[in-house]
Amino acid sequence: MANQISTLGMEQKFKKTPAGSIPVDWDVSRISDVCEINPGKAEAAQLDREMAVSFIRMENLAANGGGITGSQTERLGDVITKGYTCFKNGDILFAKIT
Do the Cβ atoms of 69 and 60 come closer than 8 Å? Predict the structure, then answer.
C-alpha cells in the first residue's frame, strides 16, 4: 500500500497509532465497528432448504490469504442445521485458528 501511495506522486504524512504508522487522514477502528462478523443464519433460514449452496471446508481456505483452494456443493438443509458459518457472495472469509 505504501508503494501505491508513493507512486501517486503525493507526499503522505503518517501518524503513530497502537496499530502502527498509518496515514494521518485514516482512523483506527475495531473490526466489529466497521463490518459484520459471523452474521447469523436468519437470512439463510428463509431460503429453500433444497437449494444447492457452496460449501467450503476450513482446509480449503488458504492460510496465506491466497483465496479458496476448493469447494463443493451441498444442500442448504444439510449444512444450515450444523455448526457451519453461513456466507454469501462478496463476503471475506477467514479460517478459524483452533
Answer: yes
pLDDT tens-digit series, residues 53-85 = 988 888 888 877 778 888 899 999 988 888 788
- The pair phi, psi for residue 43, each rounded to 5°, is -65, -45
Per the structure block, which three cell numbers stand in for 97?
A: 485458528
Residues 6+ apart with CB under 8 A from 5: 12, 23
Q: How much is the pTM?
A: 0.55
Residues 62, 70, 78, 48, CA torsion sign: positive
- Residue 76 is which amino acid? L
